[in-house]
Task: inverse folding
């Protein structure tokens, strides 16, 4: 359940970001859900199942990257209401294998508001252990959020 949001003016932008995330075709491959929790704070909830395992029976690194990048990206994009951000770099640290269950990627904006923003994220497994961490830089693109179908007010994630 999402905590009470404190910025009524920003809430429509945050809900639109959630719809945008849900509309991305890649998320049919990695079933997950974005929750924007406030300015500079987002999380992604997902279940790790065997369909994302590598040959040794744990989550492949692509799942770490995708969820960490997405959580940090959306945390940063809460501060940018006109443009889609692009990931320009991302550093990732694997700390433990994920062998299944509910995992949460939590992203937080760190710095920057103009052209380049920096955000971090962490993955926590269902036992509360951190299993990965990342830091990314995100740059404003020329792509207007308002021009993206998934972002439009009233658009449906399905």
Result:
């Amino acid at each position: 359940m999402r905590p009470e949001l404190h910025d009524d003016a920003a809430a429509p932008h945050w809900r639109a970001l959630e719809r945008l995330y849900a509309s991305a075709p890649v998320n049919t491959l990695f079933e997950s859900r974005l929750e924007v929790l406030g300015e500079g704070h987002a999380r992604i909830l997902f279940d790790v199942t065997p369909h994302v395992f590598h040959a040794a029976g744990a989550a492949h690194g692509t799942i770490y990257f995708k969820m960490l990048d997405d959580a940090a990206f959306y945390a940063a994009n809460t501060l940018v209401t006109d443009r889609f951000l692009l990931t320009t770099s991302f550093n990732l640290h694997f700390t433990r294998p994920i062998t299944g269950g509910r995992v949460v990627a939590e992203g937080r904006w760190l710095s920057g508001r103009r052209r380049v923003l920096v955000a971090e994220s962490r993955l926590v497994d269902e036992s509360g252990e951190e299993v990965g961490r990342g830091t990314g830089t995100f740059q404003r693109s020329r792509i207007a959020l308002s021009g993206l179908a998934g972002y439009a007010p009233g658009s449906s994630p399905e």
Summary: Strands lie at 32-38, 41-48, 83-94, 101-111, 116-125, 130-144. The CA atoms of residues 41 and 75 lie 5 Å apart. Confidence is low (pLDDT under 50) at residues 1-5.
